[in-house]
Amino acid sequence: MIWRYNKKAKSNHCKLLHKSKGECVLSIEKKATAFREYLKKISNYQEAIGLMAWDLRTGAPKKGVEQRSEVLGTLSSEVFSMKTSEEMKGFLDELTEEKTFGQLDEVTKGCLLECQKEYKKLTKVPAEEYSKFVVLTAKAESAWAEAKEKNDFPSFQPYLEKIVDFNRKYVDWIGYEGNKYNTLLDEYEPGLTVDILDGVFGQLREEIVPLVKEVTEASNQPATDFLFKHFPSKDQEALSKEILSSMQYDFDAGRLDTTVHPFAIGLNPGDVRVTTKYDEKDFRTAVFGTIHEGGHALYEQNIDKKYIGTPLCTGTSMGIHESQSLFWENFVGRNKAFWEKNYSLLKRYSPGQFDDVDLETFFRGINVAGPSFIRIEADEMTYSLHIILRYELEKALINGELEVKDLPDAWNDKMEEFLGIRPATDAEGVLQDVHWSGGSFGYFPSYALGYVYAAQLKKAMDKDIPNFDNLLQAGELAPIKEWLTANVHQYGKRKLPLDILKDVTGEGVNATYLIDYLKTKYRTVYQLV
Amino acid sequence: MIWRYNKKAKSNHCKLLHKSKGECVLSIEKKATAFREYLKKISNYQEAIGLMAWDLRTGAPKKGVEQRSEVLGTLSSEVFSMKTSEEMKGFLDELTEEKTFGQLDEVTKGCLLECQKEYKKLTKVPAEEYSKFVVLTAKAESAWAEAKEKNDFPSFQPYLEKIVDFNRKYVDWIGYEGNKYNTLLDEYEPGLTVDILDGVFGQLREEIVPLVKEVTEASNQPATDFLFKHFPSKDQEALSKEILSSMQYDFDAGRLDTTVHPFAIGLNPGDVRVTTKYDEKDFRTAVFGTIHEGGHALYEQNIDKKYIGTPLCTGTSMGIHESQSLFWENFVGRNKAFWEKNYSLLKRYSPGQFDDVDLETFFRGINVAGPSFIRIEADEMTYSLHIILRYELEKALINGELEVKDLPDAWNDKMEEFLGIRPATDAEGVLQDVHWSGGSFGYFPSYALGYVYAAQLKKAMDKDIPNFDNLLQAGELAPIKEWLTANVHQYGKRKLPLDILKDVTGEGVNATYLIDYLKTKYRTVYQLV
């Protein structure tokens, strides 16, 4: 049969909302209900937008992309309108009045604060500019994918120039304190500034560059030849699904698909999707990539259901989100204890690839570290250097100290400076990441912050779960997921990143734990102790 | 990375539309442009709704379904609002004025007539009732799938009762002429009535019931044992994709997925998706199911691009749509000439299943006909009897002569009456089809009309393409697709079903050609001539 959408529908949301318009006689309770209905409608639009975005990245036919990007533009514009409408202003004005606000429930209070912040920001931005931007980024992503495939930066340059230009203007519209880049940082990591990052990243760089050198020069390098044997995609997929399940990822509330640049997306806590990709010559891409995205997905699947239909029903920041994915990828997935349980599973799915490889050799092999070109395949030791590189380039672009046309060279120069290697192609250099084509500037630092946060969380978890490694050996990952749900997941966006950190660890951003962890781990892996 | 939708968007549609509001000084051209912008917005919403519907049927996680159905409700309600708004009324009033209308382009004229018809209908329906209905049907579909799986009609009955009740009220709201069921028929097949159908279906039934008897009693029955050997899904999928490509289905403008109840859906002409299912013990389900849905998809992929963003960018009726899928499934796919070309292809993908089966035996086998329970697996000879059964039950339900609780028995009685067999379970009886759970009443007759139309189109095509069978033998299907595009596809919804029929065949609905075709074909297959 040919599917036809149902032509016959009208919700009573609208009526409720229209009623609420300007009616100042409404009781506080009715006002709050109308406000929550309004937020529910916005959230429903965002869920539709989210599904379209997932679809665009997991196999939407290319001839439909241009029209689909217009659909995204239309719905995004409606979301923007609702978030900046007179109606929203009315809700905010009425419900944040001191004696009204005090009588509201916690969730509604949180929604009001979030919407107020967003309203102030969004109302500073010219409508047409944003409309153009949304359409631009939807098209830029396909252009990026093609440019990457063909190693053709010039074909992508005009898109990126428009995107950078937009972000520069965005800073002007919103305004900034201290450094222009702070405004973009705030989009992804509220409370973080260039001052803080220069400090944290400075400390990381200072300690890690020598560690990389030490490890690179170590006499006893891990064997890695066994990593690169043929491992069929379908077997990698079956393995990935088993690992996701053991992490307590709920397949009744999600699914696993393939894509160019893996991601996880929470449409609602009952539908949180993971994507991955399979390299038949390197199983690590899928295995660790899936564990990573699975960590993101666990966050979104375990947000308290009371936040559904509100702007609080998502991770609180990119950095905290990344702390979850990296916790699972590194503290669990690259931990020897984890493979004491799962090495036999891996062997069962692989075609004899590991038959004559003992666990110690395998463990050292999957933790091989050193300079490399591709961020998403970088080891946890060098990863933050890949991020610091992007951070410095973005900072320079936004502050007008660097132009897009000079980006490929600037990128390659920094790679040499940080890691002592220079990309032969832009595909393995400046074109490797999807983020900029999606318009995201200020996002990358969250990755390195995720490492820092994750190490801080692990330190705190050790107090509550002293037998962490034993649980991994037994394959009992539930208590670990429960701890993360209790301390991080459940709050959604109701708690700010630095508050979560403070409540769990008692301190602010502190790179020391990550540095200690990396030194201890890699000196062990490289038998330097 | 975790995907975040872009928070920053506002299209200029709204502005344009607000401008147009009430401004009677606008030039005709500006009014028409504003109207088309307005339609574009509606069409964009419908595309988002369509993608969600596709997703719900191709693997959306079940825990997200309830929330997703609310998203569908929200967007559908917006579409309803836009189609019935004062703004729409304003466009219709101003632009259909005689001297204004005459100055408009053909596409805009067609849009106005379509919107006017819909406006009149939709404005007769209570908003809340429709809102409830959309949410109901979204939930009913999951309930149906579960009920079918567990052969548990009572668990589905309350949903179906609400759906039937709604359709009865719908007829009262809209009004009807002659028979209440006519109002529902008009939803899918404008111009068709119970009077016409009783005539056409009567003639079919009169001629086909004896033909079924003749064929069932034929001494030389086709061998079929070779049909039911193990044929791996992945090989069936590869085969299905090759056949779709040979039909000129454009995979850059579509994709093939699996589902419970196969369908095709056109989101826009650049994104028309086909779904199928694989029965490893009967390859015919996938092969002929895919050709069938592929026929629907070719229609949607080849609508003239000038109709994109308008209500005319879809098939003109369910019956004409079905004529396309059935043309490909039966006149091409079950034609001996088609297999003279493709039998070797089939053999290449199957694991030795046909090694000792000659083409004649194969051809007779895939055309085995006779009484069976499942409509979508019925042969083309008995198919229309399955439809006439549903038609009579729907007619009785809508006219209040039958109640849902009595449906299973009524169904089984008619099966015995028409085909001499009685289903052992409701899963292979009244629960077999998705349509009613989706709220569709008046849809089924289109299937039988599709057969009748297809036979009429084939008769007309024979004049232009006398070497039809030679093209199939050569695997040159392009000219056939081109003929259908030229005579049917390109017009989208701009031409009414009976106009298309008139322009191509010179007459109205006529069952004679189908009856002649079936008699000739099945007397050959069963060696009765």
TrEMBL record, chains A, B:
GO terms for molecular function: carboxypeptidase activity. It catalyses: Release of a C-terminal amino acid with broad specificity, except for -Pro. Pfam families: Peptidase_M32. The keyword Metal-binding applies. CDD domains: M32_Taq. It comes from the Bacteria. It is an enzyme of class 3 (hydrolase). Its EC number is 3.4.17.19. Keywords: Carboxypeptidase, Hydrolase, Metal-binding, Metalloprotease, Protease. Coiled coil: none annotated. PANTHER family: CARBOXYPEPTIDASE 1, METAL-DEPENDENT CARBOXYPEPTIDASE. Belongs to the peptidase M32 family. Broad specificity carboxypetidase that releases amino acids sequentially from the C-terminus, including neutral, aromatic, polar and basic residues. This is Metal-dependent carboxypeptidase. It comes from Evansella tamaricis. The lineage of its organism: Bacteria, Bacillati, Bacillota, Bacilli, Bacillales.
